[in-house]
Design brief:
Blueprint lengths: L4 E2 L6 E2 H7 L6 E6 L6 E5 L6 H7 L9 E5 L5 E4 L7 H4 L3 E5 L5 E5 L2 E5 L3 E3 H8 L5 E6 L5 E4 L4 E3 L6 E7 L1 E6 L2 E6 L2 E3 H8 L8 E8 L8 E2 L5 E3 L5 E8 L2
Parallel strand pairs: 2-3, 3-7, 8-14, 15-21
Antiparallel strand pairs: 1-4, 3-4, 5-6, 5-7, 8-9, 10-13, 11-12, 11-14, 15-16, 17-20, 18-19, 18-21
Length: about 250
């Protein structure tokens, strides 16, 4: 363990807070994680440590077998070489990822440059790094201008030719409306939205609709939906809409 590494959490503080307040940091608290984004918080007194100092502070023994990357405030990754200094004050970096590998792969996530020290990256890692909302998903751009949905449980091979580019966008859901398959964007649908999918166009004031749903993501997962209402959906949610003309 590096002698500069501190262990008393009461004497440490995060870099970002001190920078915002325009004062020096007593001891730098940073988090060093792995390919699963399992971070360990450590403290170091040196404001300009070597890469190997950061690894040693995180408890890694055979540091020469590791590569280290800083996650900058912009979300970009920057390599931290073992025998080069990294200015914690200037970069404002508080998180680092260590890989037991001397090879790294370049990829992009929403335009941000990342370096990954493993030949495969897990979908759940991409979701965590991109900080997507519940209604968004991660997609891998494919040749020809298309994209492929990446689920959290997926694993993407980074050894293929070219540089993988990932984006986040609203997730599309496959539902059924009056026995017809439909695709909607976002997990919350309204009564009025489903009516338009079932019976497109304007409707006279004497036309009424009744609606039932099944296999929804809401609680309860089945029931009736009235004007002005909404329901949370998932793939496979089913709606039945009946149109009645009042005399």
């Amino acid at each position: 363990m590096n002698p500069d590494a501190a262990t008393d959490a009461e004497d440490t503080e995060d870099i970002d807070t001190a920078n915002r307040e325009g004062r020096p940091v007593r001891s730098y608290r940073v988090a060093v994680g792995d390919q699963s984004l399992d971070f360990r918080t450590v403290a170091i007194n040196d404001p300009v440590p070597l890469g190997r100092q950061l690894l040693e502070a995180a408890g890694h023994q055979d540091v020469d077998a590791y590569s280290l990357f800083a996650i900058l405030a912009s979300g970009d990754f920057e390599e931290v070489r073992l025998d080069e200094t990294f200015d914690l004050r200037g970069k404002g970096a508080e998180r680092f990822i260590a890989f037991r590998s001397d090879r790294n792969f370049r990829l992009y996530l929403n335009g941000r440059a990342l370096r990954w020290g493993e030949p495969v990256i897990a979908g759940v890692v991409l979701y965590t790094l991109s900080k997507v909302s519940n209604d968004d998903a991660v997609y891998l751009e494919t040749s020809g201008g298309g994209s492929r949905l990446i689920e959290p449980g997926d694993h993407v091979d980074l050894t293929q030719p070219g540089v993988e580019k990932f984006i986040t966008a609203a997730r599309g859901y496959e539902i059924t409306v009056n026995t017809r398959p439909r695709t909607v964007v976002g997990s919350l649908v309204t009564y009025e939205q489903i009516v338009q999918l079932a019976f497109p166009g304007p409707h006279d004031s004497n036309v009424e609709f009744t609606m039932t749903y099944r296999h929804a993501a809401s609680t309860p997962p089945s029931g009736e939906l009235g004007a002005g209402g909404s329901v949370r959906i998932k793939n496979g949610s089913t709606f039945n809409v009946t149109r009645t003309v009042q005399s």
